[in-house]
Specification:
The chain contains two helices and 14 strands, in the order ββββββββββββββαα. By secondary structure, it is mainly β. The longest helix is centred in the C-terminal third of the chain and has 9 residues.
Length: 188
Amino acid sequence: ALHAGGRFTAAGGVPANRIARWDGRSWSALGSGVNDAVLALTTFDVGDGAGPALYAAGRFTSAGGVAASRVARWDGDAWSALGPGVPDRAFALMPFEDGSGVGSALYVGGWFTASPAGDAYLARWGCVASPPQPLGDLTGDGLVGLDDLLTMLGLWGDCSDCGNCPPDLDGDCTVEFDDLLLLLQAWS
């Protein structure tokens, strides 16, 4: 379905407070909507087994009658707040995998100068946990074994790209004995 947000109070003649759903034939409201402008919409799956949900951001302070400080989640039946929200307008939403290894997260951008985590202008919610890659798993198969050892030995003594050299397990910019010890400790 297509979802639209803004400052409207009706869509296609149907009462819809600032957010509505188009199913290809008609508009419908998402519960009782929100109490002020919706400035951004996206879908995101937090990995809780419920599947993807619709997220809204804007100038509102309540969604479906529930206190929601400028960000809220619609699960198909009801609205809920995203924690304490953010203290000022939010007008960007984007699911993103930042490469940190914790999985995808929902990023919220806006005019706020501090989020609950102390972030200014950008906050991160809903990390979808990915299983951590074991130290020494150089092939990405979830195990530390012979293929990882061969990968390490292939770069022994060399680490020409110091900041991006997976076999350099201890981070000293050289693939050497200490890295081999770390790999052997993680052998599985």
